[in-house]
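Write out this protein's structure.
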Amino acid sequence: MELDDTDRAAEETVSARDRVLAALRTVEEAGPAELTELCQSLKITTIRKTLSELRNEEPPLIENTENFEGRAHKVRLTVTAPYRSTVRVRQDDTPDTSTVAGLVANPPDWLPGQLDVYRQPKRPPVPTRCLLLPADRLTRPGSAPAPL
């Protein structure tokens, strides 16, 4: 199900960047306080940090307007900012398997078998010190070591 921009701005499972961009799509311009209201659970410090990141992207996705909200500039979108896709796609349209989302979208042939092996119950490991010392050399804490 696809969310509209108003719902996307308030959705907590969406990144702060995408929430701020969605909120800016619903209004012509906004300041940090107004964006905090639109994004609901994001703190104003997170909004300010996200706005700085969006200004510094190449090309910048937002720009300051001549209007102010308190001492802060109001901002607006400079271009239609795209949503970030969770699955990167290569030029040949095969999912990028360097991400978990890419692996899930197109698992290699060996992955299902390895998952079965991973899910099998594990044997408890043998303590390393038991493998290295003969039984007659083991002593209790505070007792004298066994003679050679």
